[in-house]
Write a structure and sequence with these properties.
Elements lengths: L15 E2 L14 E12 L10 H5 L5 H18 L3 E7 L2 H13 L10 E5 L7 E6 L3 E7 L16 E6 L5 E7 L10 H19 L7 E6 L8 E4 L2 E5 L6 E5 L12 E3 L2 E3 L2 E6 L3 E7 L28 E6 L1
Parallel strand pairs: 2-3, 8-9
Antiparallel strand pairs: 1-4, 2-17, 3-5, 4-5, 6-7, 7-8, 9-15, 10-11, 11-12, 13-14, 16-17
């Protein structure tokens, strides 16, 4: 990442190559990529800048050494998950993306397994953002934010949707999402509807001129699959509040017959982390992934600031996409 400073301002976008490389397009031959999505749960670095959550600011245990230990655990898990694309939510800043990328590269002698490219975005003054690590070159990135003034109450801080374009090994557009959570007593569904509208509008724009464009939406939507409008046995329907237009997207949760979800609240499974797809793209081998980061019954091991134990309160989800 020559020429880029490690420390970046809030809402910074990283669009850079870690290693200069080129991938050869294989024409009409089908290409398979493994994609992992994981909410890493309040993944802050060892510096206390005042934007962290209060339990991190108040903690006497949280410091640079604790951060490095947690970073090592995350990177070990990412290596085991072995995704060609790794999407992460709840990352504090761009410096952590550098640390993850460097740590993964330092422990891997196979050039094909190195994450050569990465991107990151978050809203100014917010605590956490989203990141994407890729073994394939990122050709374009945009960040789409909302500031809604038409509702009764003020618009809360909402994380931007990141639009990422890969052209090799085949054209693929990815939308990275982290929708408004349900935390607190206030009903936040109205803000998720606005985020749904934004995502729908961006998908419609991406399909202009090519209705078969390969599109994958991923992230923590803070909304169970049952809370979406189900348009067919395997598809959900998203609606744009701007235009009233709709898009139909495939959801692998609707065909998944396993017992697990991606999040467990009060011993009840929820399926709030998602892959949605449309166009010339097939989603296969989808499931939540268990490992050292989960208990024997599959529940995730949340990170606990008081003990510095655990990984995340979400399970990673993974799938293979065929282009």
């Amino acid at each position: 990442m020559k020429g880029l400073k490690r420390k970046a301002a809030a809402a910074a976008l990283l669009f850079a190559s870690l290693v200069l490389a080129a991938c050869q397009n294989s024409g009409k031959k089908k290409i398979s990529l493994k994609v992992v999505n994981w909410n890493a749960q309040t993944f802050f670095d060892g510096n206390k800048d005042g934007i962290e959550y209060s339990n991190f600011i108040k903690s006497k245990k949280w410091n640079e050494d604790a951060y490095k230990e947690r970073l090592q655990k995350l990177c070990k898990a990412i290596n085991e998950l072995d995704g060609d694309l790794v999407i992460l939510e709840e990352i504090e800043n761009i410096g952590i993306v550098y640390d993850i990328s460097n740590a993964l590269a330092g422990n891997n002698w196979n050039p094909a397994k190195v994450y050569k490219y990465a991107c990151f975005s978050k809203k100014e003054k917010s605590s956490i953002g989203c990141a994407l690590l890729s073994r394939y070159e990122i050709k374009g990135i945009k960040s789409h934010s909302l500031d809604i003034q038409s509702e009764k109450g003020p618009s809360p801080s909402m994380r931007p949707i990141i639009e990422v374009d890969l052209l090799e090994p085949k054209p693929l557009k990815i939308f990275v999402n982290h929708w408004k959570s349900k935390a607190g007593a206030e009903d936040t569904s109205v803000w998720r509807k606005w985020q749904e509208s934004l995502l729908t509008q961006k998908i419609i724009q991406a399909q202009e001129g090519d209705s078969s464009a390969a599109i994958l939406c991923a992230g923590d939507f803070n909304q169970d699959i049952k809370e979406f409008t189900i348009s067919s046995p395997a598809c959900v329907e998203l609606t744009s509040g701007y235009s009233g237009k709709k898009v139909s997207l495939y959801s692998p949760w609707l065909e998944f017959d396993g017992p697990l979800g991606s999040y467990n609240y009060k011993d009840k499974w929820e399926r709030i982390d998602h892959f949605f797809s449309c166009g010339n793209l097939q989603v296969q081998d989808f499931s939540p992934r268990t490992g050292e980061w989960s208990y024997d019954d599959g529940r995730p091991k949340p990170f606990r600031i008081y003990s510095l134990n655990g990984w995340s309160d979400h399970l990673p989800i993974a799938c293979t996409i065929e282009l």
